Amino acid sequence: MIPPSIRPRKTPPGLRISLDSSLDDLCRPTRGSSTICAKLVTVRQGRKEAVVLSLTKPAIIGRDPDRCSYIVTDTSVSSVHCKLYAVRSPNGGVIVSCQDLSRNGIHLNGQHIRKTCIILMDGDVLELPNSLAFTCVHIWKESRNKITIFDPTPPVQPSHKHIGGYIVTSQCLGTGSFATVHLALDPVKHRQVACKSIRTKKEYEVGQVMKEVRILMTIRHPNINEIYDTEEDKNFIHIFLQLCTGGDLFTYITDHPSTGNRLCEAEAKYVMFQLLKGLNYLHDNMISHRDLKPENILLYSPGPYPRILIADFGLARPNAYQETFNVCGTVSYLPPEGVLALDHKHLGYVGMPADCWSAGVILFIMLSGSHPFDYGCSSDSSSDWFTHIQESRALSEGSQLSQSYVHNESKLKARIIDGRAEFRPYLWKDLKDARLLVESLLVHNHLLRATARSALQNKWIDCELDELESLYDRRILAAVETA
Predict the structure, then answer these.
(1) CATH C-level class of 160-242
(2) Is 233 assigned a catalytic role?
(3) What is the dotted CATH code of the domain comprising 36-138?
(4) What is d(CA 459, CA 96) in angstroms, rounded to the nearest whole number?
C-alpha cells in the first residue's frame, strides 16, 4: 500500500507494502474466520457444486485458473468474472456481496447488472450470461426486523413494491426509530440501490426532510454517499441512495480483535485521507454533517484499504458557518461546545468545527481501538467502550436506557468538557505525527481547532501525499469514472 515506515505492527523490519501489492493479501484474520457464512449452489453436468464463503476468504469465479477459485470454462465468461465476499453487517448478521468484474455483466434474479457491486440475499439467483446459475444460501441468518414499510413484518417469502421507477424489496438492510433501509433495484441503470424510507407524521416534517434532501442531491463526491432520487407518499419519504456492500467502519474496526480492535497505521491513514477529503468538500459547500461517527461511514465494497463514503445526512445543516442551538449527534463524538449545549439550551455551537472534532475521535479510535475520553477501560481492553456504543445503537432503535449507560454517558460528557485525550504510551510512542493530527482536531476551543483543509496538510498526511493520491486515483477515481 503506502511504502514508507507505516505498516502493520508485526511486519518484519525492511518490508514495505508497494502500490502494486494485491490488497487482498493484506487482509488480517477476523473473528470467526473458520465460520462458513454462505454458499452459492449450482448444478454442472448433472452434479451439484457449491462456492463456499467465509468471513476471511473471498471467492473468485472466472476462466483463469491462476486467479480464480471456481473455474468456469464457457467462452461467455470472463477471465475474472466476479468476486464474492462475506462480511459482518452492522446488525450482527452478514452481508454477502458480488462484485462484477466482467465484460458482459451478470444477472441477478433475471435483471442485468454491470460494473458494480451487489448484495446477494438468501435465495437470490446469480447467473453468468449463457453459463451457470448459482442460488445463494445464507447459512448465517440475519435477524428479522419488526417495523418496516412491509407491515406488519417482512413476509416470509421476499416481496417487492414499485415505488417510482424503482423496485423496492422486503429485504431490510437496517432500521432505526424513524426510518428503515431496504434493498431496491434500479432496472434502468442496471444496479442495486438502497431505499431509505422515513416515516413522517406531520406535514412540516415532510418539508423539512425534503429541504435537506434537495440540498444533498447537489453534492457529488467519491467519498459521500450519493442520493439518486426521492419519492413521497402519504406516510413515507423514500430516498434512493448509492448502495454500499462492505458494512460500516465501526464493524470493520471491531472485527480485528487480534490487533486490539484497531487498524494498522497505513490503513487508518488511507481511511482518514478519504474522510478529510469528503469533509473538506462538504465544508467548502457550507454543509456540516453533525453526526459523524464510524457507524455513519460506509465501506463501498468489502476488502482491506476500503473506499469509504460519509452517509446518513439526516442531521446535516446548510449554512454551516452559522451557530445552531439545535444540538444533535452522538455524545461520544460531540465536541465540548456541543456537550455543553445539550444541558444549557441558551448555548449554541457551529457545525463545521464539530465535524472536525468528530473526525479526530474517529482517527483516535482507528489507531488505538478505544475512545480518547473513555479512561475507564483497562490498558489492554476497550470492551467497556464498545459495549457503550452497542447500547447507544440499541437506543436509536427504541430500546430503554440502562443505569450503567446513563452513568457512563455522564462521565464521558464531563471528560469531553474538562479532560484531555488519553494517549497510552505503548500504543502512541511510534505514532507521533498521527498524535499531532489527533491533538489538532481535539482542541477544546473550536476557533483554534484544525479544519478539514488544514488537517489534509498535516505532516502525517503530507509526508505520503503522493502515495495516497496515487492510490486514491487508481482505486477510487478510476472506478467512479467507469461506473
Answers:
(1) alpha beta
(2) no
(3) 2.60.200.20
(4) 38
